[in-house]
Hints:
The chain is of the alpha+beta class.
Amino acid sequence: xxxxxxxxxxxxxxxxxxxxxxxxxxxxxxxxxxxxxxxxxxxxxxxxxxxxxxxxxxxxxxxxxxxxxxxxxxxxxxxxxxxxxxxxxxxxxxxxxxxxxxxxxxxxxxxxxxxxxxxxxxxxxxxxxxxxxxxxxxxxxxxxxxxxxxxxxxxxxxxxxxxxxxxxxxxx
Length: 172
């Protein structure tokens, strides 16, 4: 998936561009708008960002799950090899410790991520804080990306291209 970033100065521009994108087949679920005034975005019936897009919860949760899985797997092997309670622990201990470690790591990572800003949005936050609107448009393929670029080219006086990610994933 590709993600294209654009800045606009007004919510009226965002609404007009959103309507044109929907007319060419870019659904509302592919468009996210971030700005200082989230209430104004909601009242304008524009698809704003959610905590999933604004925070690093997905990335940090995924990294935490991977780290927890490794620690849990190691702990499971240690428990099975040491027999700490005088009883034979086998694959059940390994599987249980791995599952526990994965879930605990994902939970801790999610807690860390929900309190930190999405690392994909860091380069754009200064302009958002100054009052601009950041439009994030997702494209599944090059055909959709071309449609988005054509619509945005028609609005070059209202929307400024801010960047793009060729291989966007919320997990990286």
